[in-house]
Amino acid sequence: MGCTAAIVFTCFGASYGTAKSGVGISAMGVLKPDLVVKSIVPVIMAGIIGIYGLVVSVLVSSGLKQSLSLYTGFLQLGAGLSVGLAGLAAGFAIGIVGDAGVRGTAQQPRLFVGMILILIFAEVLGLYGLIVALLLNSASAEGVC
User: Fold this and answer.
1) Domain V-ATPase proteolipid subunit C-like, which positions (predicted)?
2) Which fold has domain 2-61+68-140?
3) How many Cα atoms occupy the beta-carbon half-sphere of 81 within 13 Å?
4) pLDDT at 17
5) What pTM value is reported for the model?
6) 128, pLDDT greater than 80
């Protein structure tokens, strides 16, 4: 369940962030096609969220065995949920900020730096979930409660 939660929720967040930012890039590209490549940053940052889930999912699945204690199972579930739900929240934030930021950058280019800063803070939310998941997963390998 931890593997599934990690990959599913982070991919939900990454796909929402990609889709929402992609809509903004498409709308902006009609008016200013020269800014499309510069505005692809939110899509890349949303994709990184999915990688966080993949990393935790692989780590949790490598610790699975036939007989597993309840303690280890719950820690692995907690690891998957922490990175998954943090990735979902980060993906939503990246999508909304990316959409509005890209559209705003088309009208006022000075907004680009502000958009990047806000996107970095949104990405850090997913990174917090990854750190907690790695700590939980390392604790699950230590033993039985």
Assistant:
1) 1-59, 77-136
2) Four Helix Bundle (Hemerythrin (Met), subunit A) (1.20.120)
3) 7
4) 96
5) 0.90
6) yes
